[in-house]
Amino acid sequence: MKQTVTPEPIDTRILNSALDLFVERGYHNVSVHDVQRQANVSIGSIYNHFGGKEGIAKALYYHVLNEMEVLVNSVAEKNLGAIESCNQLILQLFEQTESRRNIIAFALHAKHREFLPEEPPICSAVPFKAMRDIVQKGMAQGEIRPSDPWVAAATVFGGAIRMIHLRLDGVIEQPLPTFYEALLESTWQGMGVNQE
Amino acid sequence: MKQTVTPEPIDTRILNSALDLFVERGYHNVSVHDVQRQANVSIGSIYNHFGGKEGIAKALYYHVLNEMEVLVNSVAEKNLGAIESCNQLILQLFEQTESRRNIIAFALHAKHREFLPEEPPICSAVPFKAMRDIVQKGMAQGEIRPSDPWVAAATVFGGAIRMIHLRLDGVIEQPLPTFYEALLESTWQGMGVNQE
DNA sequence: GTCTATATCCAGATAGAC
DNA sequence: GTCTATCTGGATATAGAC
Lengths: 196, 196
Prior knowledge:
2 copies of one chain form a homodimer. By secondary structure, chain A is mainly α. Chain A has helices spanning about 10-25, 30-40, 45-50, 55-75, 80-100, 100-110, 125-140, 150-170, 180-190. Chain A has a domain at about 60-190: Tetracycline Repressor, domain 2, CATH 1.10.357. The radius of gyration of chain A is 19 Å and the shape is elongated. The mean pLDDT of chain A is about 95. The termini of chain A are far apart. Chain A has 9 helices and no strands. Chain A is about 65% helix and about 0% strand. The first copy, chain A, binds a DNA duplex through α3.
């Protein structure tokens, strides 16, 4: 068994550095030189591998989108009911907001239109559509109360996503999984007390 | 009565132009020259009035924050119950997302940290806190089911804010007020069908 | 493929006439 | 207070040695 530590490949180092910097400061406040320094590579290598700053962003975009797909698939393939699937998704998102903050931040909190104007809005991409489809299916099967598709998806996931944003902005100071149980209750049961 | 059309004051023209451009392209993709052209003023005037690009952004930030405060106050001073206040807030936000898109976009959809790093996150500002306080008060008075403050606020407003984001990103194609009634029902009643 | 050194461009900001 | 012309820094990107 090899004992020597294999250093991360150069692409990975560049992408990881860029992810950290982009999330921390925002794409436009990061120069290629910043990425170069943090990744301990030369400018030349960056242009060789990614063709430029926007190339890095695009690679990151698809990398992060893929991570989101993995997350959603990991829940989908359990073949749980719709509600339980949504709960698992929210739990995963909450946990990964703490453990892999920058991935979640880049996926859910970055304004890609401002630096990747060609790409479609990330919420129209596959994993996000899959989340809405889970809700939709739950409605079709009577497990979730029927409603407009957008309203239903926003009601189920909107609270969680809102809390993720507030957490990433530092407004919420406790780790999100703390709120998991309470959030589920509110989401499915609603906030109203007297409905007469 | 004066018949001549009073031209907008120069500050207003600059701020309006900047708001449009910042929302459309993102702060960092707009140059001072762009603002200057759109507002039909000279660079010199801009520096005279706002001291620079960041000065414009800061003035806009407070202007928009003030607009949000007006919106929240307009609901608060009606002294409705907590639930009805929240509903009115959501309705106002939905309507203004259509009628004054850029104000709402700059308030709820811009990443101020990326160009005004000194300012606190907008969600910690007065009008947003007031929204959370309305929910809190509703819980204290038994009108809203008690829950964690963050969870409650995110549940009540998260769905609406999520839909505003999707609308601003062009993912939702119908005007938001269309969804108002359905959203309220989901929010207060919850999405679960079988709660046994 | 990786590096350093350099070219080029453009944005933010200023100077100074009017 | 408003304007035009200009300066300057810093960013992206390239050239060319190794």
